[in-house]
Structure formats: structure tokens, C-alpha cells
Amino acid sequence: MHFEHSEKAKDLQRRVAAFMNDHIYPNEATYHRQIAEGDRWQPVPIIEELKPRARAAGLWNLFLPESEYGAGLTNVEYAPLCEIMGRVPGFGPEVFNCSAPDTGNMEVLVRYGTEAQRKRWLEPLLAGQIRSCFAMTEPDVASSDATNIRSSIVREGDGYVINGRKWWISGAGDPRCKIAIFMGKSNPAAPKHQQQSMILVPMETSGVTIRRMLPVFGYDDAPHGHAEITFENVRVPASNMLLGEGRGFEIAQGRLGPGRIHHCMRLIGVAERALDAMCARVTTRVAFGKTLAEQGTIRADIAESRMEIEQARLLTMKAAYLMDTVGNKAARAEIAMIKVVVPRMTLRVLDRAIQAHGAAGVSRLSRSWNCQKGQTQDPAKTRVSASTIANTAAVTCLIGVEQNGLRQLAGGRRFKPALSSAAAAAASAQVKRHRRLRAISRHRDLADLVHERVSPRARLCEHFHRSVRDIKADLVAGRRERHQREPHVCRRRGRVVKPVVRQHARERGARGL
Ligand SMILES: Cc1cc2nc3c(=O)[nH]c(=O)nc-3n(C[C@H](O)[C@H](O)[C@H](O)COP(=O)(O)OP(=O)(O)OC[C@H]3O[C@@H](n4cnc5c(N)ncnc54)[C@H](O)[C@@H]3O)c2cc1C
To answer: Fewest CB within a 10 Å sphere: which of 57, 160, 231, 432?
Structure first.
């Protein structure tokens, strides 16, 4: 694995960080104020104001890998940029047109869209003029197993008719959300993984109704939001089908990997930001005659956080590296691991940061207070409280993400689910045999080692053991006379030898020797 970034990647890191310093951190308070006032479900003016600047600076659509549309960065090159943008969840990535779920949806269109589909939907998405959503999850079925999805996509004449109820559809609350990638069953009689399709559904089509916006731990995440949507006899042209009927899983596999890297790196950015906020806070707060930073447990918390962030980042970079070099499929274990490791780590770091902030750490009101204080050119010194960072969709949905990731590990191919009892017994016997063989081979290695380094004592030991083996063989063969000739061998110690000695003694005694 190569850890060194290319000059191109380093240059982009410097430029994205500089843009964050100049335009994003100083405007965080404005961003929160603008969402709070007026209609919360309208685009945020400061984002629209900053987008052209990011575009002019060449910091636009950086997520797209090698293609005519994007920056052509590998996962390893893009990951650190994601971390820098992720330091300001929501606001940061959107200014660079690098926010979910648009990034994943644009990738789908680049990889699997037809010329006409790209022209109609990809181009305005790339230009940041419209937004999109991904409609898979359904309230009625366990959607972590996508084979459960029940919504129907039925061919009728030159189009498809779509019916179903979806929920947690992120981004659907934004009035600029114009297109949904809808997953449903088109071929119920086909093999399990060929029943699903993905199809493009314009949000303005008749029969598409947003029923409500779902709060995440009490936060509505406006203007992005997570919607419950019904699709009732929604008719779309047949040309809206992506890749072909029954190929929904194939598309889902392609979409999955890069999205995980992006989410995880953004979360690492959140964790770094929380740690910065914690360090800034504890160096200025004095309790019991010392700054908090001088208290042992606080220092330990900072050290733990630093170590955990580094570990999580290395694992994520490994996943990115494997995706670049051997592909998403080969990297699936690492992709599943980061989905668990990174959210867990972020929650722990946030928890420590909240604790170090005392009561301010749990207060939502501290958001604007901290954003005002946070107007500094140096992100390392930015004083945004942990609660500011914690009170975001990115973090509040973590628990679900983590649980789902654990399930993937438990149910994934490399971590087989429980076997039947007979199969489990056979597997256990095989494992025991394997261990025994390993133990024997280890002893053999040791014996060879002793033989090679023949010290006189070792030779003596070896001679002794050989003698014992001979005695055993002799006993079996009934050649006991030899032991009468060599009683000294038998007198040597050992559990096996003693009974032999006693037997000799008895025989010798009987013969009056
Ligand atoms: C903030 C947020 C945003 C979202 N955005 C979107 C979006 O844009 N589009 C979209 O389609 N969906 C979205 N989702 C939904 C998300 O993808 C689903 O919640 C997720 O796939 C789990 O499905 P489910 O809710 O039906 O849970 P279920 O499938 O009912 O699972 C319930 C629990 O059981 C666990 N579980 C399942 N199988 C196993 C197993 N074999 N072993 C052990 N545990 C298991 C799961 O991990 C989970 O913890 C979003 C969710 C949230 C919270």
C-alpha cells in the first residue's frame, strides 16, 4: 500500500483547505441563521452564493473518478478531500457539489446511464442546478436485505407503471430535487438477485407524493430532509430504465463502495473537528487550579481520540486503495469494516468532546454561539462546539449505519452465518484436527531445532527419549531380554520407564538374580 499522495492530490488538498478557511468556516453562522429564518425548506442562499466561487476555483465535482465529467481522482486521492469538506457537514460538501446522495446518483448515471439519460439528468446535476434522491427503503419490509423490496415496476406498452411506498428518502425535501433513482421489483419470477431494477422517476410525475418528512432524533435536517413518499400508478417511459430490467443489484454493487469511502472520510472530518474543538476548549478552561488540558483523564481522552482517528483513517484508506487496485468486490470486507469502525470511532470522539465542553456540549443553543466565535482563518483553532457537529444528520444517523454494518459483517460471505448442528460438529472436528496437526508440526520444528543446535545435554535428552521409544517397541515385540542386559536405560526417570523397571526387577528377582 502506498501512503504518499501524488502532487496533484496534495495540491487539491491545499486548495480545498484554503477554500474552507476563506469561505466555509467564516460562513457557518450565516448558514445556520439562514436555515433557521423564513421557509426552512428552501435552498440556503449562502450555499448558492458560494457554489460559483468553488466552481471558478476548479473545486467542483471532485468525486467523479476517471471520466470526461469529473476531476479523474482515484478513491485514494479523493478520500482526503472528502475529509476536509466533511469537517462542516452538509454545508461544506454541497458547496463543492460533492454531497450525498447526488454523488452516488451521478456516478450511477455516468456508469450506467444512456446518452439521453445523461443529457437529461446528469448534466444539470453536474452543474449543481438540480438535486436528486435514491428511493430504495420501504416501511413494510426489512430493507437492509434489498431482496425484500416489494415496490413494483411493471411494463405496460411503451412505459413502466410504478407502485410502492418508500421512506427515509434523503434529499427529497429540497425543492430542487427533480429526479429519483427508484428501486423495485420488475421480474418477481426471476432468480433472487435478478428480480430488481432501477428506474429514473422524475419527482414531478403524477402519482409521486411526499407524505411527510421524517425527523432524525428530533432534527428535520431541512432543507435536505428524509421523506416518506408514495408512488401510485406512476407512469414513466421505458427509456427511463437504468442498464436493463433485473439489473438493479448490479447497479447497487457499483454504487455501494465509493459512497462508503465518502461517508466514512466525511465522518473522520467530523471527528477531527470535534477533537479540535475539544483541544481548544480544554486549554482555556480552568478547573481546580489547572487548565482542563493539564488533567490526566482529559489528556488520556485526547490521546485516545487521536489514536482512534488515525486507526480508522488508515483502514478507510486501505479500503480505498483496494478499491482502486483490485476492485470493489475484492475490497468488500474492508468496505463492510469501515462502515462499522468509523461511525463507532466518531461517536466515541464526539462523546469525549461533548463531555469536555461541560453543559455547553449538550446544548443546541451553543451552535450559533460557537459559530460566531469560530470565525477564524485557522481551522485547527476553530471553536465550534461538539454539539454543533453532533447535531447533524451525518452523525445522528450513525447508530443505524453502524448496526447495518455489523449485520453485514455477521451475514457477509466472509463471515458465514450459523451452520446446521451436523455441519457445525463436522467443522468443529476439522478445526480440532487442524489445531492438533499444527501443534505436532510445531513440536517437530522444535525437535529439529534441538537437533541442529546439538548441545551435549540436548543430545543426552534425545538419547534418553530414543531409549524410551525403544523400550516401548521392545515391550510390544516381547523382546525383554535386552532390558536385562541394559537395566541402566530402564532405571532412568520417566512415567513410561518406571513400570518397566519394576517389571524387570520382579523378573530378575524371580530368577534369583
Ligand atoms: C438518516 C437516514 C437517511 C437515509 N437515507 C436513505 C435514502 O436516501 N434512501 C434509502 O433508500 N434509504 C435511506 N435510509 C434507510 C436505510 O438505508 C435503511 O434504514 C437501512 O437500509 C436499514 O433498513 P431498515 O430500516 O428497513 O431496517 P431493517 O432491515 O428492518 O433492520 C433492522 C435492524 O436489524 C438489523 N439486521 C438486519 N439483518 C440482520 C442480520 N442478518 N443480523 C443481524 N442484524 C440484522 C439491521 O442492521 C438493523 O439494525 C436512510 C436512513 C436514515 C436513518
So the answer is: 432
Query: Considering the chain, what is the average pLDDT of its residues?
Result: 80
The answer to whether 16 and 85 are in contact (CB under 8 A) is yes
- Between strands 152-156 and 131-135, the pairing is unpaired
Q: Which residue has the higher pLDDT, 501 or 407?
A: 501
Quick one: pLDDT at residue 503? Answer: 64
Establish whether residue 168 lines the binding site of ligand 1, counting it when its CB lies within 6 angstroms of any ligand atom.
Answer: yes
pLDDT band at 200 (very low <50, low <70, confident <90, very high): very high
8 A C-beta contact, residue 130 and residue 124 = yes
- In order of 81, 262, 388, the CA distances from 59 in angstroms are 10, 16, 26
pTM of the prediction? 0.74
Amino acid found at 511: R
**Is 297 a pocket residue for ligand 1 (Cβ < 6 Å)?**
no
User: Do you know the residue count of the chain?
Assistant: 513
Interval between CA 400 and ligand 1 midpoint (Å): 6
Residue 400 pLDDT > 50: no
- Per DSSP, the residues of 346-384 read HHHHHHHHHHHTGGGGG-TTHHHHHHHHT--S-GGG---
Contact 490, 500 (CB under 8 A): yes
Average pLDDT of span 454-477? 50
Ligand 1: distance of its center to the CA of 88 in Å?
25
Query: Please, are residues 508 and 484 in contact by the beta-carbon 8 Å criterion?
Result: yes
Ligand 1 centroid to residue 64 C-alpha, Å: 26
| Mean pLDDT calculated for residue range 369-380 | 41
User: Could you give the angle at the alpha carbon of 227 between the alpha carbons of 224 and 233, nearest 5°?
Assistant: 130
CA of 231 to the centre of ligand 1 (A): 20
